[in-house]
Design brief:
Layout: E1 2-4, E2 7-9, E3 12-14, E4 21-25, E5 32-37, H1 41-57, H2 65-81, H3 83-94, H4 98-120, E6 125-128, E7 139-145, E8 148-152, H5 158-171, E9 175-180, H6 185-198, E10 205-209, H7 212-219, E11 226-230, H8 233-246, E12 249-253, E13 258-262, H9 268-278, E14 290-296, H10 300-312, H11 332-348, E15 351-356, E16 370-375, H12 382-385, E17 392-398, H13 401-409, E18 417-420, H14 424-431, E19 440-441, E20 459-460, H15 465-470, E21 473-479
Parallel strand pairs: 1-5, 8-9, 8-11, 9-10, 11-12, 13-14, 13-18, 14-17, 16-17, 18-19
Antiparallel strand pairs: 2-3, 4-5, 6-7, 7-21, 12-20, 15-16
Length: 480
């Protein structure tokens, strides 16, 4: 049993305004695995006041970038040392399979190192060469921190979502109030512990588990200068409206309904092995999951059979078991949402190839769903258009390359996607025509040096690398 009975506000573990603790339940068997204090609006006010005072006091923003980088490298080293503990906590809280949470630790290192490398070479200040040789005025262009950042993250990949925001925000000299989901109170309490050990100045960072009402209080706070959000598109629209009314800077990483385009010459064995991860990582609770599988009519039934065989072979069960590939959904309402979508797919007339709304045998005590594949899906069906956020895949047929690209782009979303082909040039040609923020070829891993984010309803702004750092800065021009 893990207990966090205080909140990390401005660099200190502080008594919460509401002393009652939330019980954190295991998605596997609904047992209580921990208890944690939850922030209320009064706690948000204290955190924002501390962040604002730290920013105005200039103690952090005026530290040379090299020193900020060195301090945050210490955090990353501590995080690496605690990798097993982080993975175990995330598995316990979220139901994410142990293979996924342990494999994610190396990704966290790659993500952080990409930010550090970008910060070491960032264009913090430069003097422009006048375009007119007779011009006597010189312009100095500087990158200034935005101010107080409200970073609001979802529950599905808490450490990755947290560090993708707090690292660039802190590296560029901002103060941060990180709002995390109640489900992640334990792992994010550990994140606060690690940050506390590196010696950040007072007020620079707060970590607050809280509900949606308290979250809205944070993003609406008049002393917050920027909102960095990852979550649903519906919540993103609400945040964008608040940010627009107050002219806050806003970056949004939202939902997805990504397409994997299997070209006629693709190696299906390799494609199925790749889609096992690209479509079903983290129990399917992933915004970048490739949940629309586009198959050529000439190989349609072959693709459907191969996908069903792959999905049926995946072990479902206790997420702490190293042999489990798919664990439970995070909560009961998420479990019901996914099962409802399976029922919707059946009602819409899609062909249920494997899975279904029934619970997996022997797992009725947890928030489990049966991994499901639908065939004969059309682009207008809800299961092809709406983000389900669970292990449910839809296979759509296409006639030719133009048809495949039309179907892939016929979506409100544009976050991720993939192309499978034996011909790299052909795959690249298709990838360039898909309107989405990230496209992988033949299952290549997503890199962290380039920008990550979405087109259309999948968001505004980008994360990772130098572009991600720039999201937390303002330009200042000084003319001499």
């Amino acid at each position: 049993m893990i207990t966090y009975d205080r909140l990390y506000i401005g660099g200190s573990w502080t008594e919460p305004s509401e002393p009652a603790l939330l019980e954190i339940l295991s998605p596997h068997d609904r047992s209580v695995i921990g208890r944690a204090a939850q922030a209320q609006p009064a706690d948000v006010d204290r955190a924002v006041a501390a962040a604002s005072a730290a920013f105005e006091g200039r103690g952090w923003r005026d530290i040379p970038p090299a020193e900020r980088i060195a301090l945050l490298r210490r955090f990353n080293k501590l995080r690496e040392e605690e990798g097993d503990r982080i993975a175990d906590l995330t598995t316990a809280e979220n139901g994410s399979a142990a293979w996924f949470t342990k494999a994610s630790q190396s990704g966290l290192t790659r993500q952080a190192n990409a930010y550090f490398a970008a910060a070491e070479h960032f264009d913090w200040e430069r003097t422009l060469t006048p375009s007119d040789p007779d011009e006597q005025v010189r312009s100095v262009v500087r990158r200034e921190p935005v101010g107080v950042v409200a970073a609001v993250i979802p529950w599905n990949a808490p450490f990755s979502s947290a560090t993708s925001k707090i690292l660039p925000a802190l590296l560029t000299g901002n103060s941060v109030v990180l709002k995390v989901s109640p489900e992640n109170s334990l792992s994010m309490g550990l994140l606060a512990e690690l940050m506390d050990r590196i010696g950040l100045p007072e007020g620079v960072l707060s970590v607050l588990p809280a509900d949606r009402e308290t979250s809205e209080h944070l993003i609406s706070h008049p002393q917050v200068d920027k909102i960095a959000f990852t979550g649903s598109t519906a919540a993103g629209r609400r945040i964008a409206s608040i940010g627009g009314a107050q002219l806050k800077r806003v970056s949004l990483e939202l939902g997805g309904k990504s397409a994997a385009v299997i070209l006629p010459d693709a190696d299906l064995t390799a494609a199925m092995n790749g889609l096992k991860f690209g479509s079903l990582l983290n129990n399917g609770e992933s915004c970048i999951a490739h949940t629309r599988i586009l198959a050529p009519r000439s190989r349609y039934e072959e693709v459907v059979a191969a996908l069903a065989a792959m999905v049926d072979s995946l072990p479902v069960g206790d997420p702490s078991d190293p042999h489990t590939f798919i664990g439970p959904m995070v909560r009961g309402d998420q479990q019901q949402r996914v099962r409802d979508y399976i029922e919707i797919g059946i009602a819409e007339g899609a062909r249920l190839v494997c899975g279904g709304p029934q619970l997996p045998p022997g797992l009725q005590g947890g928030f489990y769903v049966t991994p499901t594949v639908f065939a004969d899906v059309t682009p207008t069906m809800r299961i092809a258009r709406e983000e389900i956020f669970g292990p449910v895949l839809a296979v759509l047929a296409y006639d030719d390359i133009d048809d495949a690209i039309r179907i892939a782009n016929d979506s409100d979303y544009g976050l991720s996607g993939g192309v499978w082909s034996a011909d790299e040039a052909a795959a690249l040609a298709v990838a360039r025509r898909i309107r989405t923020g990230t496209v992988t070829i033949n299952g290549a891993p997503v890199g962290f040096d380039g920008p990550f984010g979405g087109f259309k309803a999948s968001g505004i702004g980008r994360e990772f690398g130098a572009v991600g750092l720039g999201q937390y800065t303002e330009y200042q021009t000084i003319t001499i």
